[in-house]
Amino acid sequence: MDDGSIKILQCYSDPDPEENFYTVAWSYDTETGRPILAAAGSRGVIRIFSLATMQCVKHFIGHGNAINELKFHPRDPNLLLSVSKDHALRMWNIRTDILVATFGGVEAHRDEVLSTDIDVEGTCIVSCGMDHSLKIWKLTTDIMLSTINQSYTFNPSRAVRPFPTVQQNFPDFSTRDIHRNYVDCVRWLGRFILSKSCENTIVCWKPGLLNQTELKHNDTNVTIIHKFDYKECEIWFMRFSLDYWQKVLAVGNQQGRTYVWDLDISDPAQARCSTLTHPKCVAPIRQTAFSRKGNILITVCDDATIWRWDRVAQQ
Amino acid sequence: MNSSYKLLKPIFLQRTLYYMRGRMSRSHKNRMSFKLDCLLDKVTQKSERQNERPASYLNIAFTGFHDDKLEGVCGDVARVETFIVKMCHKKRKESSAPLMQVSVGTQDVNINPSEGEGGGGCGRNACLSIPTHNFTSSNGHQVKSYVLVFRVSLVHDQENAGEPVVKRRRVGRSASQDSQDSNIPLISTNAINGDSHGGVGSTYAGELVMFDRHGRCLLTPGQYELMLELQAGETTQLCKSSPKKNASWESIDTLKFDGIFNNIPVLKFTLNWNSENSTSVIERPRLRPLKPLDVVLANSASTKPKPQGVASPEAPQLVLYQFVYNNNSRQQTEARRDFHCPWCSLNCMALYSLLKHLKLCHARFTFTYVPHPKGARIDVALNECYDGSYAGNPQDLVAMPAGFAFSRSGPTRRTPTTSVLVCRPKRPKPSLSEFLEQDDDFDLPRSYILGHNRLYHHTMTCLPIQPHELDEDSEGEHDSEWVRQKTQMMIDEFSDVNEGEKELMKMWNLHVMKYNFVGDSQIPLACSMFLESHGTELLRKSLYRNFVLHMVSLHDFGLIGTGVVYKCILHLQNKMQDPSVQKQLAASWEEQRRSSKKLFSSYNGSSSSFVSPVKQESTCSSATSNGLTEESKSSPTKSK
């Protein structure tokens, strides 16, 4: 709210009391323009809520285990990416209720997939998980593009065969050299990647050599651009976030302290870090999120508290 | 199944259950002696019996037709025709409820007689007698009600009687009326407000419903004033219009009913029920209490169930229900004196039927019978083994959007499921001992349908298999794309195999995986098919010698005989005759000579790390090839 407070607008409760929601993602209905919210968690079911009617309008089953993160495609609000404890990623077309692709198998993740992000242009997916690896999957291959198109026109009642879901077993790049433990959060930063493990660092890196532009499938080179260090964040499933314009980065630690970096500088070594603390905020901060303009930061803690931090204009 | 749901939407009749014989009132004992010819006799006898009753009549004595708008026609006479309209219940396959209309008489009645003239007036014959057997329910159709319809037409005009129709002097005041009929619109709602046209040729109609919903006769004897409505033309409409269409709001400011009739045409008559046919004027109606006609009631009364068979209704006993719960620590008791089920109020007529009904229809409880000196005691407990899971088509639960299959938006393809409707297993003789305390429940009700109503899922996506996908088995793991890709990648990773060898093995493996050769005896066929499909490609990639090596290996392992080796190589050499292939071969051979010469010359005499390219001439006996060299490029050791 404008006065600095927080007001709860809607609340949804799953009929199964055992459900724990781990992740949410915003999008909108391409036909009506109304906002929709996707949520998923330990039961492995993706629920789509229409906020205008305050109902769960759709659900998607199929993941074999809990879902750790949901992301919508930046260019196509109907494409939803989900990553799961069942070692796979899935891409759904939520307009036509079709599973477009699964990213899993022989060369995919070998343990829980914890986080994912789609780059701003919608060309690549990056995913990371408990197997310490980060993998990049291209969305611009012929088979992916044609299957996405087909998912809009496929008519199940007239089809003889089930929809030809792409079963992508082979990522376009893979590395285990960035972190030495579970990689629990990853985000694109332009053509670079930000990722963290439970080693008190967010690493900014890129695949291949520094000047290399193309992705090679069996490339073993990675270039580390910068490391953002902080303290006391050695448990996993702690997420950082960027604002919409990718100018600010924030992560919380297990003592309730939030670290914020200003990325809007040309030399990453000069990124300044601020810390946000409050005497009552002492529980681990699981996730952070920025408002669209980047001037409000919300952090959520394990003790069920929500904290709002406003950016103050510098004098 | 939920017992309250069964009350709302029953799926079976209680009386047809084998343990509910007490409720079955029909018996089949007449079937042995039944003859088709006797049906007609039965029906005629029945109707004659009805006619034999002391004849009763419905007598109607018309006193007059009043309409204030008809000026100056005192003394004129209108014709009243009376109809009986029979409204029957609609049978299942009929499109609408049948209506039948029968005219029972026509009388002349005075228009606007003055008050003092008493019933009948003017000495004319204005009485109508309708025998009551007209009001019976007939064969085949169950009658909903009878309606008396009175149609008053103004055709008698003493002054105009002799003149042709067109010239008849208008009786009413409306000047716009042209002819005597059918141009008058039916103004149903306005008629009451007094805006009707009247006059010669107009027809008024009124209805009188005889029986209400429960079959009680509404026509008490007395004096009646029936409101009539102007009708369009001479159409003999049946009273089909729904009451809603002719309804209108009327404000009752003062609740004085006298004023209502002032502007409306009214038919006055006296009505009574009499045992004699009366054509004379009745002076004084005799009031009788409202009594339903025997005729009507006799057909609609439900027959009481007659005791039959196993469960003969017994004398009312004490039935004690003892509900024990919370691990036998609490109890609740209820006593009844009849055999009605306490949950659904069904009259079970007998103890055995009651117990059976409780056990089967209220399966969420267990019922144990204990004989009691005064009757019976039933111990009720929660059934821990109750299976309340969904027993329908599992596809309906997962259809998207949720609840789609239960909506009525049109036909959809569904998976076939089995539901048992009728089941007649061998049953033990009914006895109360089956309800006694059981030590071990070996008698758990087993489902008759085993494993039919199942939902299957796709292997890779874990999504349910939709009904329309059932035709084809999509789960076979044959020649998957990822397997093909993986073998190629794995072959590429070898560090001690030359390029040509890798390429050939990739081609060979893909070929074998595609056709799924699994037996040793299939290898000769595999070789010849390989050459058919990939022979030219082989030569183009200069893999001739690699292929020969492969043939030799297969021979060494005993998979093919020498004849096969010979035939295959012959086949391949025949392919080399193709001029376009030859050109390509020659070109690649030239290239290799040149590159190896260069290497040789530049490294002449240097250290042992030099890998010399191997040049071998082909030594095939029937060869037309000249100087094919084996592709050999030293490949750097690959790091994994």
Structure description:
The complex is a heterodimer of chains A (315) and B (640). Chain A is globular and about 60 Å long. In chain A, 4% of the residues lie in helices and 42% in strands. In chain A, the strands form six sheets. In chain A, strands 5-6-7-8-12 form a five-stranded mixed sheet, covered by helices on one side. Chain A has a four-stranded antiparallel sheet with strand order 1-2-3-4, with no helix packed on it. In chain A, strands 9-10-11-13 form a four-stranded antiparallel sheet, with no helix packed on it. The relative contact order of chain A is 0.08. Chain A is mainly β and 315 residues long. The model of chain A has no long low-confidence stretch (mean pLDDT 92). With 640 residues, chain B is α+β, with helices and mostly antiparallel strands. Among the domains of chain B are: 208 residues, Immunoglobulin-like, CATH 2.60.40; 69 residues, Ubiquitin-like (UB roll), CATH 3.10.20; 159 residues, no CATH class. Chain B contains twelve helices and 13 strands. In chain B, the strands form three sheets. In chain B, strands 3-2-5-6-8 form a five-stranded antiparallel sheet. In chain B, strand 12 and strand 13 form a beta hairpin. The two termini of chain B are 63 Å apart. The C terminus of chain B is likely disordered. Chains A and B meet through strand 4 of A and helix 7 of B.
CATH class of the domain at 56-241 and 262-283 in chain B: Mainly Beta
Q: What is the tally of beta strands of chain A?
A: 24
Q: Span from first to last CA of chain B?
A: 63 Å
- The protein's oligomeric status is heterodimer
Using the 3D structure, state the CATH architecture of the domain at 56-241 and 262-283 in chain B: Sandwich
The SS-based structural class of chain B is alpha+beta
Main β-sheet description of chain B: 5 strands, antiparallel
Which outline of chain B best applies?
Answer: elongated
Tell me the β content of chain B.
Answer: 15-25%
Please state the average pLDDT score of chain A.
92
